[in-house]
Amino acid sequence: MSEQKVNITLPDGTVKEYKKGISSYEIAISISEGLARNVLAAKVNGEVWDASRPIQNDSNVQLLTWNDDQGKSTFWHSSAHLMAEALEALYPGIKFGIGPPVETGFYYDVDFGSQVFNAEDLEKVEQKMLELSRQKNAFIREEVSKADAISYFEKKGDEYKLELLADLEDGSISFYKQGNFTDLCKGPHIPDTGFIKAAKLMNIAGAYWRGDETRKQLTRLYGVTFPKKKELDEYLTLLEEAKKRDHRKLGKELELFTFSEKVGQGLPLWLPRGTELREKLTNFLKKAQQKAGYVSVMTPHIGSKSLYVTSGHYEKYGEDSFKPIRTPNENEEFLLKPMNCPHHCEIYKFKPRSYKDLPLRLAEFGTVYRYEQSGELHGLTRVRGFTQDDAHIFCRPDQVKEEFKKVIDLVLYVFESLGFDDFITQISLRDPENKQKYIGDDEAWDKAETAIIEATREKGLKTKTELGEAAFYGPKLDFMVKDALKRSWQLGTIQVDYNLPKRFDLEYVGSDNQKHRPVMIHRAPFGSMERFVAILLENTEGKFPLWLSPVQYIILPISEKYAEYANKVNEELMVKDFTGNVDHRDEKIGRKIRDAELSKIPYMFIVGEKESESGSVSIRKQGEGDLGTFELKDLFAYMQNELEKSLKSVR
RNA sequence: GCCGACGUAGCUCAGGGGUAGAGCGCUUCCUUGGUAAGGAAGAGGUCAUGGGUUCAAUUCCCAUCGUUGGCUCCA
């Protein structure tokens, strides 16, 4: 009687025959021993499996190594178990919550009970992990009945695992065991702990059990592990590099913005250079908006409470925002403006609108104030007072999709111009399970959601969709960009809104001479000036393109004898709308160059005896060095050309 | 808001129960120099704030404020 066989299809399309019950590890060996040593897990018919799990049917098999994202996350998931084993060995009796892999590394939530654990103890755990990994203990999968699982964790007294078990179905429960540690886990895992050669526990933090702030806070330990020591070192170096790009550090060094305890937390103060940068960004967008048919408006920083009662913001956020301001005599209530849209609705109502007037695109760089929880404030990315590059497009229902597409074009233009080529677009819809979180009727929501989905599809945007992430008045399309530490931040946003026009009773007269309701599109390509500058800083490391640079050049006189000539050159550059200054300090030229390089000023013009006599400057470009001597008229032409190139090159 | 860490000169940081240090920056003087740090002298700190313990607190404890890593939240 012949053995039963299975056909295994590999990713390159080759089909091989193996005996039934073969594991992906054995398949790897049949290909090459070297490969087998690196196999962490395998994707069998689209599902990630342990490399040791027997394959009983014809299957598509993809071997996963460190080079595959799913290989990495399996590796880190197993590392979480290893960390738990180490912790249990060092702190007997502790209880465990969940321990998943994350984008870089893994964490485990732990209840240390009465034992104390602090950051200094992390190293001890690292050492223990490495000690245990050297034992090369296999990760062993075991199917268990629900009753057995419950009794195991009851005996152990781990109420967290018991709670997790309560949600699981009998027959689908598995344990994984390595060394002396057993955990409830559906897997998969790497073959054994010996693969983990380097471990670094990054930090500890509080985390609510199941993310619920009414429940107990556990200690979350974050770590990262690697199959090679060298890779850990490289990763740590990368973190050091990221620190250099931190916008909070660069903002201070380049004198762009600051915070003051006295002014209040989350309230940025823009220094002259930062203001210059912001104005350049603002003018850039204003110009683009002008071309796209927007008109500018301005509205005050506070608004009567009734404005926000009408818009629904008060009901939705009143409790969690800055309290109303009252007039001393009449006791009238005003709110700091949290959004510009209610004001813009009132501008729309200034006069009757005809269908011929639409779309009406009202733009405002409007400063808004929101009470953000103190723990959430972060540099310029999360503040309490910020300026949105806001606009509201009031249009007819038949114009929504077209207008939405135009806004996508504008956002893409802005992102391209600033070199943000690595971004994610996310469609945020409402949570169908939790409709009371939102205002408006189903019909309006369906229309708005359909408009976004169709517009993004027609623009060919690759999007991911999240349920429950919509604004309370409408669905949105967000553009997310990463900072130096690869954290995603929402920058640009476009939202379709059928609700506010209704709440504000906005109308226009159609060609049929009947009254109709316009649709609103909220949009902000930068999102907020503050957050945008932050992400721009992290992406450019403070080396802005010439057109954006707050200080575009610095003139460096060789000695004070040439100060007058330097001033003359400076004045001529200022006349030509460049921004820069002269370094009049009593320092040698080498020193002035070094300081200019470090402050990331794009161009240095050196003037000494030679230059002042011949009416020229010696140009030095940041990061590149000496470019030679240019006569003044050539300098202006050169700078003009560089300026255009800097706009174009990023376009 | 919650948990943890941190708060010393303008900046970056060292120190530590007996009222403070470095480097850079700043001021003054010398130097007038040619493509990444010229030299010297000097000023500058209620050691975040308020309590407590102690003969004595910047140091130890508590609270507040701020920063920070997470959690929750995010119009």
Kindly report how far apart the N and C termini lie.
70 Å
**What count of helical segments does DSSP give?**
20
Please name the CATH topology of the largest domain: BirA Bifunctional Protein, domain 2
> How big a fraction of the residues is strand?
25-35%
What is the name of the CATH architecture of the largest domain? 2-Layer Sandwich
- What is the CATH superfamily classification of the largest domain? Bira Bifunctional Protein, Domain 2
**Whole-angstrom Rg:** 31 Å
Helix content: 25-40%
Report mean pLDDT, rounded to a whole number: 92
Strand neighbour order, sheet with most strands = 18-22-23-30-27-26-24-25
Under the CATH scheme, which class of the largest domain?
Answer: Alpha Beta
Uncertain spans, ≥5 residues at pLDDT below 50? none
Structure description:
With 651 residues, this protein is of the alpha+beta class. The protein has 4 domains: 61 residues, Beta-grasp domain (Ubiquitin-like (UB roll), Roll); 170 residues, Threonyl-trna Synthetase, Chain A, domain 2 (Threonyl-tRNA Synthetase, Chain A, domain 2), CATH 3.30.980; 243 residues, Bira Bifunctional Protein, Domain 2 (BirA Bifunctional Protein, domain 2, 2-Layer Sandwich); 97 residues, Rossmann fold (3-Layer(aba) Sandwich), CATH 3.40.50.800. 35% of the residues lie in helices and 27% in strands. The chain is built from 20 helices and 35 strands. Strands 18-22-23-30-27-26-24-25 form an 8-stranded mixed sheet, with helices on both faces. A 5-stranded mixed sheet has the order 2-1-7-4-5. Strands 8, 9, 10, 14 and 15 form a 5-stranded antiparallel sheet that branches. The longest helix is centred in the first third of the chain and has 22 residues. The protein is globular. The mean pLDDT is 92. The structure holds one RNA strand of 75 nucleotides.
